[in-house]
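for the recovery benchmark. tokens below, seq after
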């Protein structure tokens, strides 16, 4: 374990080196997880980590009909689409309630981010995707859109993004987090959240950079708009403060101290037009050897594919 922790220290903030602490029996078990994903909270990092770890386990076990892992972008998903299928992990931007269309239950989780940073990130992300320059007038128009007012409270209370939220919906969201959700955290707690779920399901370790980030060219200083953002997102700010004080990742079961012998390396191979990732499962011992003898791998995870003689699929082939 100390070698893995040493690599974690070397990687610092540039790379996420995520440990899965498993039991002596290494008993993989699927605990169905449903992630209600508010935009620009770091949710794609969470999704990619669990998706690629689950895919690696299903592949290693040669499961002919493995449990499904899906990211649902639209609320058009119906009960008929879910019928007869078992889902290991679902992530969605949809409002709370989509899980009721599935044939089985889930543990629920979510991540909350303070509104100023989240709205600035959402605006610049939109600029990156459309190839437009961020500027003050565009940001002001963006802030006027109803869907950018109290998104987290609306999602968790079951409102549509075009609806208006009030203090009743804030209370509903807070109550739901405590009564219904298996876990909820704020963005700074993403690392322990991922490590907890990797450990709970005895999945592989994960090594990755934070996913789906806005490129530096599109960054925008939202500080002059802070008062306006908070005025339109006061409910979300209160929900964030509540989650920062009360939220926790799930506690792994007792006796989970052994480091997983498998590590999944995730490389985001496209990010400008859309986010596309590739995952590679290798023995943890091999990852440690690469990281110790070829430290440049920590700056370019694609090198690990070359060192193992593997070839990544092109972004076009993965769409």
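predicted aa per position
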């Amino acid at each position: 374990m100390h070698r893995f922790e040493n690599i974690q220290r070397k990687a610092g903030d540039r790379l996420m080196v995520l440990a899965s602490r498993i039991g002596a029996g290494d008993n993989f078990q699927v605990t169905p997880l449903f992630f209600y994903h508010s935009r620009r909270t770091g949710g794609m990092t969470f999704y990619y980590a669990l998706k690629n770890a689950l895919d690696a386990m299903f592949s290693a076990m040669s499961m002919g009909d493995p449990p499904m892992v899906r990211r649902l972008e639209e609320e058009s998903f119906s009960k008929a689409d879910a019928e007869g299928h078992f889902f290991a992990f679902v992530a969605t931007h949809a409002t709370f309630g989509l899980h009721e269309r599935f044939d089985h239950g889930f543990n629920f989780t979510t991540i909350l981010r303070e509104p100023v940073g989240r709205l600035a990130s959402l605006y610049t992300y939109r600029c990156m995707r459309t190839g437009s320059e961020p500027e003050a007038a565009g940001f002001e128009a963006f802030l006027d859109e109803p869907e950018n007012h109290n998104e987290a409270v609306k999602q968790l209370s079951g409102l549509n993004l075009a609806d208006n939220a009030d203090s009743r919906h804030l209370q509903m969201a807070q109550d739901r987090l405590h009564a219904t959700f298996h876990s909820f955290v704020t963005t700074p707690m993403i690392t322990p959240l991922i490590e907890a779920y990797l450990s709970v399901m005895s999945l592989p370790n994960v090594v990755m950079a934070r996913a789906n980030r806005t490129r530096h060219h599109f960054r925008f200083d939202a500080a002059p708009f802070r008062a306006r953002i908070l005025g339109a997102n006061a409910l979300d700010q209160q929900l964030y403060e509540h989650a920062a004080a009360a939220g926790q990742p799930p506690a792994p079961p007792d006796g989970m101290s052994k480091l997983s012998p498998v590590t999944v390396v995730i490389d985001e191979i496209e990010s400008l037009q859309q986010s596309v990732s590739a995952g590679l499962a290798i023995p943890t011992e091999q990852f440690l050897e690469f990281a110790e003898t070829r430290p440049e791998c920590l700056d370019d995870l694609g090198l690990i594919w070359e060192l193992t003689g593997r070839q990544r699929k092109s972004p076009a082939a993965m769409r």
